[in-house]
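Box S1 | Example of a co-folding query
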Amino acid sequence: MFLCIFAAQEDFMNNMIDMLSETISYFHKLNISKPGVGIVLGSGLGNFKDELDIEVEVDYDQIPHFPVATVEGHHGKLIFGKLNGVQVVAMAGRFHFYEGYTAQEVVYPIRVMKQLGIEALLLTNAAGGVKPGMKVGDLMIIHDHISLGIINPLIGKNIDSLGGRFPDMSEPYKRDFIEKAKNIAVSLGLPVSEGVYFGVTGPTFETRAEYKMIQVLGGDAVGMSTVQEVIAANHMGLPVFALSVITDLGIRDEENIITHEEVLLAAKEAEPKVSALIREMVKVV
Ligand code: HPA
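Box S1 (continued) | Returned holo structure for hypoxanthine
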């Protein structure tokens, strides 16, 4: 079984350059305007697309070589348009490793957006808070991550034309973007913290012992997305900004359980704050 998985990955890597050029020529035929910024909208944050002046929307299943949806009813769209006057491309819905995609498939759309010309990547996600004092609905700017809990998307043959074999990860989230976001948050009157995102595969939420371990290891929030995308972006020299909405608290006294519905609801409630910040960020990255 592992041999099959590795063979499939090897195939993917060997064909990736051809696949990317076919995906890109599909978009060129649609005559899209070149986007300057790529945006990935996390769980519960899909309504953000109402902020966009949409020019072209394409269902993922129409895009050559995009991963094929594994989960019923989980179809996303790639949206081209303007946000606050800036030409952007936004993913409404992302691919998660826990859905059964390979790590390379999860990051394929990031590679596509880079080839379409984006010069900055803005990511949003829902995450569980483990830092003491965090509350549901808080925003956390990610300034670093811990990737121990995920599969690295660069495992396998390196494609030198995309990036080097051993990418530096000392500034995975661009410091300048973080400073700009903090200034914007102050001017909007939005409280934000900064912290370390701990990546896990999911789909289980963590046990109480695991949330504690994540805190001890230096995580401030934990989530099932983002890290693989950030690794691929860094591999290609694409600067990143990422923002977590804290949708549940991992370290808590209460006996309550964590549900996906509660996570989606908390993200939806925080959406206006996320939108306000991202709207301004596209102008300065
Ligand atoms: N753990 C992992 N992923 C998450 C969580 C969490 O508590 N909340 C939202 N995504």
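The helical segments are 2-29, 103-115, 175-188, 208-216, 227-235, 260-284. The beta strands are 37-41, 53-59, 77-83, 86-92, 120-129, 139-149, 192-200, 221-223, 240-249.
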